[in-house]
Design a protein that fits this description.
This protein is globular. Helix content is 70%, strand content 0%. The chain has one domain. Helix 5 runs antiparallel to helix 13 and helix 7 packs antiparallel against helix 14. It is mostly helical and 347 residues long.
Length: 347
């Protein structure tokens, strides 16, 4: 997700803190647990977004559905953040617009991908972003990653290889490859956001709004091209009640709710705690796909799913542990599947 507030650095502790009394410590712990619940709900929502996107989208309606989805989201973000939007400088607008072009590619790859693969595969393959990002960052910065992280990355890649095989060894589906491409594109988006001087210090809400506006402009151009598939109006006309519920779910919960919960939570707990909870998204994606969509990945697929979950969790732990205080902070991108990253088609 663009410029996830969960990545903001935590406030530094005072140089000489006074000893905390037991009562405030207990209250602080209780407040942290209270903030955990909505953040964990965001992870669940993002995990379910792949199935929701699969339910309302066909190969012929991907750009049209993306236009409809963000037609609900963008006006809300503009109204809420109007003053901060006006405060953006010209370079910040241009930088966010460029990031929005990358974001558009992510949404398209993810949404086309989830149409052509299972919700379980989609949610697990996109989680490779958590491994790809530190790998790419280490190459860019010329820093060698620890052996434990490389082992975790290898475990994740092996898991994806098994996951895409189902009941036997075959070529990965086109949808699996598109989701893999989306994971690479998310990595590019995260690195670009971290290294672009023009967007450093920009307000998170304004940056997200401009990126989504830029992405929607791309979708609008695509639906206007001859042979690009259904128009938003034609797609909307074919929706039944369940389709509209799915679209509203993606717009309101997977995007707006997720973004504002993160902004709320990161001010009441630590960014690393928020990031850790959001990192459970692939678990929920697999659970929803198997329990609700009836995905049956076969024994090879189940083994691969376990390896992906173990590898990404291990790699995330190693990367966080070895990150020095001066290291560049990285962010999760509106998936799913959202303005964040994570989440697109749901995030």
């Amino acid at each position: 997700m663009p410029d996830s507030p969960a990545s903001a650095p935590a406030s530094p502790a005072p140089a000489s803190p006074a000893p905390a009394s037991p009562a405030p410590a207990a209250g602080s712990s209780a407040l942290g647990r209270l903030a955990d619940l909505p953040v964990l709900l965001v992870a669940v929502v993002w995990g379910s977004s792949y199935l929701a996107a699969k339910g309302v989208t066909t190969a012929d309606t991907v750009p049209a559905v993306l236009v409809l989805r963000f037609a609900v989201v963008l006006p809300v973000l503009v109204v809420v953040g109007w003053r901060r939007l006006r405060a953006l400088s010209g370079p910040q607008w241009r930088g966010a617009g460029v990031l929005g072009l990358i974001l558009a590619g992510i949404f398209l790859l993810e949404t086309y991908g989830v149409v052509h693969t299972s919700a379980t595969n989609a949610g697990l393959i996109i989680s490779l972003t958590m491994v790809f990002t530190p790998l790419a960052e280490s190459r860019v910065r010329g820093v060698r990653l620890p052996g434990a992280f490389m082992a975790a990355a290898g475990l994740s890649v092996l898991g994806v290889a098994l996951l895409t095989q189902g009941a036997g060894f075959t070529a990965p589906s086109g949808g699996d490859l598109l989701m893999l491409g989306a994971a690479v594109a998310r990595t590019v988006h995260v690195l670009a956001m971290a290294r672009m001087d023009s967007v450093r210090g920009a307000d998170a809400l304004s940056l997200t709004t401009v990126q989504l506006g830029s992405a929607v402009a791309v979708f609008a151009v695509l639906v206007a091209l001859p042979g690009a598939g259904a128009s938003p109006w034609a797609a909307a006309a074919d929706f039944d009640g369940g389709d509209w519920l799915g679209l509203v779910y993606l717009s309101v919960f997977c995007t707006l709710f997720a973004f504002f919960v993160q902004m709320w939570a990161v001010r009441r707990t630590s960014p690393s705690r928020v990031s850790l909870l959001l990192g459970t998204e692939p678990v929920w994606a697999a659970a929803v796909g198997i329990a609700l969509a009836g995905d049956r990945p076969g024994w090879l697929g189940f083994a691969g799913a376990v390896l992906v979950l173990l590898g990404t969790a291990w790699g995330r732990t190693v990367a966080d542990r070895d990150k020095g205080p001066g290291s560049a902070q990285t962010t999760r991108t509106p998936r799913r599947h959202t303005p964040e990253t994570s989440g697109t088609p749901g995030r």
